[in-house]
Design a protein that fits this description.
Blueprint lengths: L13 E6 L2 E6 L5 E6 L2 H4 L3 E6 L7 H10 L4 H9 L5 E4 H13 L4 E4 L7
Helix pairs in contact: 2-3
The chain binds zinc ion.
């Protein structure tokens, strides 16, 4: 199924490459090439993660404030969710990463299922 793409500069066969967060075509003879996709693993991750907090955080104003800013919950419902050990936020890695970063910055420990494979 793979069609041969010739290098515009020297006519050699172009090769696909994938490196770090970019992918594209490269000519191994002369080095000419281009980037076809630029992606982040986090955007390719289709897993739905669930974030929750331990009960002690029900009185933590920072945690409540973060939740009320990042979810449809207000302070009161956020507090109830934590007290009842309920899921605070669910979503793909790309949609919850900012929330996780905020938590980390505020030293708020969260629980996430399944294990989060990306750097926060
Ligand atoms: Zn070439």
């Amino acid at each position: 199924m793979s069609e041969i793409i010739k290098c515009e500069k020297c006519g050699s066969e172009m090769k696909h490459y994938k490196k770090d967060s970019t992918a594209g075509m490269i000519c191994e003879s002369c080095g000419w090439g281009w980037v076809t996709t630029q992606f982040d693993e986090i955007y390719a991750d289709e897993t739905i993660y669930s974030v929750s907090f331990s009960k002690e955080l029900a009185e933590n104003k920072k945690a409540l404030s973060l939740i009320s800013h990042n979810t449809p919950n207000n302070f009161l419902t956020a507090k109830k969710l934590i007290e009842n050990n309920e899921i605070i936020l669910t979503g793909k890695a790309s949609t919850i990463i900012d929330f996780l970063k905020d938590c980390k910055e505020s030293n708020i420990e969260y629980k996430i299922e399944p294990a989060f494979p990306h750097e926060v």
